[in-house]
Amino acid sequence: MTDSRVEESTNHRSGVRFAELLKVQARLALREPYGLLTGIALPAVLLAVFGFIGRAVPGNVGGTGLTIIDLWIPTILVLAFIFIAISLPNTLVRDREIGWLRRVSTTPLHPAMLLAAQLVIDLVLAAVAVLIVIGGGALVFGASLHVQVLPFGASLLLAIAEIFALGLMLVALATTQTVASVVGGVVTFVLLFLSGLWVQPAQVGGPLQTIMYYSPSGAAARALLDAVFNGSPSYAALLTMVVYTVLFGFIAIRYFRWE
After folding, report:
1. Is there a contact between 248 and 168 (Cβ–Cβ < 8 Å)?
2. Could you state, in order of their start, the residue ranges of all structural domains in the chain?
3. Contact 133, 219 (CB under 8 A)
4. Quick one: which of 150, 220, 230, 259 could link to 102 by a disulfide (CB 3.0–4.6 Å)?
5. pTM given for the model
6. SS3 string of the chain?
């Protein structure tokens, strides 16, 4: 057998193994649909809450030229990604504790393949969340979105990659499911604040504004806000997300443990 045929056979076997792993991880995710409930249902509830608040309090927010629902749609998107990403530690650390990851480690699977399978599932959830938030905001609550495909797509992909890489890093570093739950809760609260859920960066000043702008969730929210309304996200926000993605991803792969 020539080298090309050997390589083709190896790639085929890897593809088959990945497809089977993807099916297994999908079934496990459906048994405990934490990401499904928090990543899709909760953002839909937040969209409805801010949408009805926007109808009750019409007009622009703080001279930004944007209504309440306009301003909070990018933030709600980031929140959806955070909730889905934080479900990663709960899922994979649990799998580590019950011995499922140890069984997988006896197969010729690389850790990156297992993380990629879980990432594909969460990307599907993220896509559904985007459709609900963008579609619901525009069609139901009349958000004046002006999405340009390329800037919005780049901002969206980087936001997902950055926040999901953070979730994978927590998977690698958490020792038990209890630790993962506690740390995940704290990280979620911090990311929610920095994303602008309770107060927008434009409404604060000084060092806090800078921290919010260059935090993982703050940079994602700012890039998406610019992409949705201004057409061109800032290079600083995009570069910030790239740096976080590389850093978190490296730590996740470097310190991942099967047991």
Report:
1. yes
2. 3-254
3. no
4. 259
5. 0.77
6. CCHHHHHHHHHHHHHHHHHHHHHHHHHHHHHCCHHHHHHHHHHHHHHHHHHHHHHHCCCCCCCCCCCHHHHHHHHHHHHHHHHHHHHHHHHHHHHHHCCHHHHHHCCCCCHHHHHHHHHHHHHHHHHHHHHHHHHHHHHCCCCCCCCCHHHHHHHHHHHHHHHHHHHHHHHHHCCCHHHHHHHHHHHHHHHHHHHCCCCCHHHCCHHHHHHHHHCHHHHHHHHHHHHHHCCCCCHHHHHHHHHHHHHHHHHHHHCCCCC
Looking up tokens 């409930």 gives 37
Grouped pLDDT means (10 residues each) for the chain, 259 residues: 51 66 71 68 83 72 66 82 78 74 69 72 83 83 74 87 87 82 86 79 78 88 81 86 92 80
Separation CA 117–CA 24 (nearest Å): 9
Buried b (16+ CB within 10 A) or exposed e, 184-218: beebbeebbbbbbbeebbbeeeeeeeeebbbbbbb
d(CA 209, CA 192) in angstroms, rounded, equals: 14
Does residue 129 contact residue 80 with C-beta atoms inside 8 Å? Answer: yes
